[in-house]
Design brief:
Radius of gyration: 20 Å
Number of helices: 9
Number of strands: 0
Number of domains: 1
Largest sheet: none
Helix content: over 70%
Order of helices and strands: HHHHHHHHH
Shape: elongated
Strand content: under 5%
């Protein structure tokens, strides 16, 4: 983790040397990260598309084996294997970002120069402390909700789609503004990537209808 923290600091300093603003440097870092995980984002989209396509079959299995959880899990696993679906595939880009988030948190916490020059005068004067006006936490919650909405393949996930954005927003009120900025920028870039990849893969952004109903 020390190596990753040092790498994050070096990349931030590189962008700062050209952009002259730590906020813009964080956005530049975020863009680099999103481009690196772009192939995984494409893989995520393919996994989501397959999950949408097998939703009618999953519902039938859930109804058929609702009183037999062990059999249900076995049949669902067989269905996933048959169609080449990885239920955790949609989580890979997020999981890969966790070490980066932790490293960036360490960097921002230890930086003594984030307050000069200011990111946005009158709003965020120091990226090493929480956003005083809670604008970034709100944006973090909203963009997280949009991201989850894009990745949803099951209506039963609705409660989670409400809980996670609120939790992220709450955390963002306590994190350094620079970390909240990274999260918001990452979500925005991710939303754009999802739209681009979705267009290429033919994703509709909604559950596939059950033709047998």
């Amino acid at each position: 983790m020390r190596f990753l923290s040092d790498l994050m600091a070096s990349i931030l300093e590189f962008f700062y040397s050209y952009l002259g603003n730590w906020g813009y440097a964080i956005i530049g870092l975020t863009l680099i990260v999103r481009l690196i995980i772009w192939p995984l984002t494409i893989k995520q989209q393919k996994s989501l598309k397959r999950m949408q396509e097998i939703q009618p079959q999953l519902k039938k299995l859930q109804e058929k084996y609702k009183n037999n959880p062990e059999k249900l899990n076995k049949e669902m696993l067989a269905l996933y294997q048959k169609h080449g679906v990885n239920p955790m595939g949609g989580c890979l880009p997020l999981l890969l970002q966790f070490p980066i988030i932790i490293a960036l948190f360490t960097v921002l916490r230890n930086m003594e120069y984030t307050g000069s020059p200011v990111f946005i005068p009158g709003w965020i004067n120091d990226l090493s402390v929480p956003d005083p006006y809670y604008i970034l936490p709100v944006l973090a919650a909203v963009t997280t909700y949009i991201t989850q909405k894009q990745m949803a393949t099951d209506p039963s996930q609705a409660q989670m789609m409400m809980f996670m954005p609120l939790l992220i927003g709450w955390f963002a009120t306590r994190f350094p503004a620079g970390l909240a900025l990274y999260w918001v920028a990452s979500n925005v870039f991710g939303i754009i990537q999802h739209i681009i990849a979705g267009g290429q893969l033919g994703l509709k952004g909604e559950l596939a209808p059950d033709e047998n109903n």
